[in-house]
From TrEMBL:
NCBIfam families for this protein: efflux_EmrB
Transmembrane segments: 69-89, 109-128, 137-156, 162-183, 195-216, 222-244, 256-276, 288-306, 327-350, 362-383, 390-409, 415-441, 462-479, 530-552
Keyword terms of this UniProt record: Cell membrane, Membrane, Transmembrane, Transmembrane helix, Transport
Annotated GO MF terms: transmembrane transporter activity
Location of region: Disordered: 559-578
Name of the protein this chain belongs to: DHA2 family efflux MFS transporter permease subunit
Coiled-coil region list: none
Membrane topology classification: Multi-pass membrane protein
Main location: membrane
Domain Major facilitator superfamily (MFS) profile: 71-556
Keyword Glycosyltransferase: no
Length: 578
């Protein structure tokens, strides 16, 4: 059959949707997407909305496509500067304490002020990026982060440092969801998994390289250098973003949801604050701890109730009815629970029990970074061949195996054993995070990529904070139970404080001149706690295997429907003609 005169049968903008009907009309084959008839209307609106998403014609789609890997490089650098700084700080804490005469509580808040603000505002900035522009939000976030970094570098009191770190958290909360949302809009589905794999690898690499960079800087410069190094990177990053990165946003954002935004900020802040305090105090029985956690959960439950009844919700809670989306975000939270909890106790093991310097400790984690870098970039191809369920279950099994191995370490564990365990853990994480993150973003329309990215990153933060708090509390409790008799040789006035951690025990023993009497029993008590924590982390990873095995799909030749172009939230059918 021939097309009618003047009728073009060229390609229409393609949306990847499950096809329900094939029809031949006027000489053209039409593939009709299987959407409810109530959603069908004129396709002109779809094209207008797509044009709005793509922005002005100054940068056409062909140019963006050609620049896509350069754009990814700029986004990775933006992400690296944010994540690296938080890990670098841990190495500088002792120097900062001496120079600013900071108390232990003030040092903790130099870390926690950033974490608290960052986690509390992630969702809000993801929403604002969708509404006002992701590139704009990325640049604002980087600018804030750079200014706050300079202020942190020259802080003259603990209070100034805490305040500056809080503003760094504001900037980071704007940067992180914007990077992933831009990737979702720049890359098409066939390359998006690989791009997200590189994005995930950069996070893992920065976590590991932070102590290495921090140790190198502190050997040559003052502690402020760990913050000041961010400034030139931010300046270069802003210039490259302005030059390369296209703007994208939701063309029809609807009304703002101030009630939902406010509830999300209050709920997340209370929850994360309670988790942090529980970890610092190593108890959940104090009213401040459980009150904050319960209050956060109640407010977040109210947030969900409010969003379900809102005509313009900030978060479409119906997403959680999608088992793939729910299983993926749950897996992200659980794996960060296990991973960051592991990094927490392994850092103390390497520095105190094994006597490594901060720089040497960072180098010990390099196998993790190498494995994550290599396997994250391959995970998309692995999913294409074996399916998301098989790949993520295998990755989680490797994480569990590495944690079981760490449950048997002692003072004389061979170096190769530790390096292999870190490599296996990195390979496991690399086969979990990219597929899970891709699944989360695939469930969200491109117009709301910022919200999807924010949910993904919020689960990372909450899961990681919970892992450090819970596993740290278990380690602390086991250590105190095992070291009670040991601290009896210390002066009576310092015994209680000395029993709080291995570091304080050894410092008190050194001052009292009884290091030889205390070292062996204290190390034994600490390692006993490490074994408990490692096995608990392995159990969490094993639980994640069950979650993905039940709820994630296996290998399928008929993939689930996904929207790959700038379709509205309730997608309209598109007829692709050939």
């Amino acid at each position: 059959m021939r097309a009618a005169p003047g009728q073009r049968c060229g390609p229409a903008p393609v949306i990847s949707l499950r096809v329900r009907k094939i029809s031949i009309r006027d000489g053209c084959v039409s593939l009709v997407a299987g959407l409810p008839s109530a959603a069908r209307s004129d396709t002109a609106r779809l094209r207008i909305e797509r044009a709005s998403r793509e922005g002005p014609a100054t940068v056409d789609q062909a140019t963006i496509h050609n620049r896509r890997w350069s754009i990814l490089g700029v986004l990775v650098v933006s992400l690296l500067v944010v994540v690296l700084d938080n890990t670098v700080l841990n190495v500088a804490l002792r120097t900062i304490q001496d120079d600013l005469s900071a108390t232990q509580s003030e040092l903790e808040w130099a870390i926690n002020s950033y974490t608290l603000v960052f986690a509390g505002l992630l969702f809000t900035f993801g929403l604002l990026g969708d509404r006002f522009g992701r590139r704009r939000m990325l640049m604002v976030g980087l600018l804030l982060f750079g200014i706050a970094s300079a202020v942190s570098a020259y802080a003259s009191s603990p209070e100034q440092l805490i305040a500056a770190r809080a503003f760094m958290g504001v900037g980071a909360a704007a940067v992180m969801p914007a990077t992933l949302a831009i990737i979702t809009n720049v890359f098409e589905p066939e390359e998006r998994g690989r791009a997200i794999g590189i994005w995930v690898a950069s996070v893992g690499v920065s976590v590991v390289l932070g102590p290495v960079l921090g140790g190198a800087l502190l050997e040559r410069f003052w502690w402020g250098s760990v913050f000041l190094i961010n400034v030139p990177v931010v300046v270069v990053g802003l210039a490259l973003i302005a030059w390369l990165v296209p703007e994208s946003k939701n063309p029809v954002p609807g009304r703002l949801d101030p009630g939902g935004v406010l509830l999300s900020i209050i709920g997340l802040t209370l929850l994360v604050y309670g988790i942090i305090e529980g970890g610092e105090r190593a108890t959940v029985t104090e009213p401040l701890v459980w009150g904050s956690v319960v209050g956060g959960v109640v407010v977040l439950a109210l947030f969900i109730w409010y969003e379900r009844r809102s005509t313009h919700p900030a978060l479409d809670v119906g997403l959680f009815r999608n088992p793939v989306f729910s299983a993926s975000v749950t897996t992200i939270g659980l794996v960060f629970f296990a991973m960051l909890g592991t990094f927490f106790f392994m850092t103390f093991y390497l520095q105190i029990v094994r006597g490594y310097t901060p720089l040497e400790t960072g180098l010990m984690f390099l196998p993790f970074a190498i494995a994550q870098t290599v396997f994250s970039t391959l995970s998309s191809a692995m999913v294409g061949r074996f399916g998301i369920r098989a790949v993520t279950a295998t990755g989680l099994s490797l994480v569990a195996l590495s944690l079981v191995a760490m449950g048997f370490i002692d003072e004389a564990t061979p170096l190769w054993f530790l390096l292999v365990a870190f490599f296996v853990q990195g390979a496991g994480i690399a086969n979990v995070m990219p597929p899970a993150t891709t699944a989360v973003m695939a469930a969200v329309p491109r117009e709301k990529a910022g919200v999807g990215s924010a949910v993904n990153n919020t689960m990372r933060q909450v899961g990681g904070a919970l892992g450090v708090a819970v596993l740290g509390a278990v380690l602390s409790a086991r250590y105190r139970n095992g070291v009670d008799d040991v601290v009896s040789v210390l002066p009576e006035g310092v015994r209680h404080a000395a029993a709080e951690s291995l570091g304080t025990t050894m410092m008190a023993a050194e001052r009292a001149g009884v290091v030889d009497q205390v070292r062996g029993p204290a190390f034994t008590a600490f390692l006993g706690g490490v074994h408990w924590v490692a096995f608990l982390g392995a159990a969490v990873a094993a639980l994640s295997v069950v979650v993905v095995s039940v709820f994630l799909p296996g290998r399928s030749r008929d993939p689930a429907p996904t929207v790959t172009a700038g379709a509205p939230e309730a997608p309209e059918p598109e007829t692709a003609r050939t």
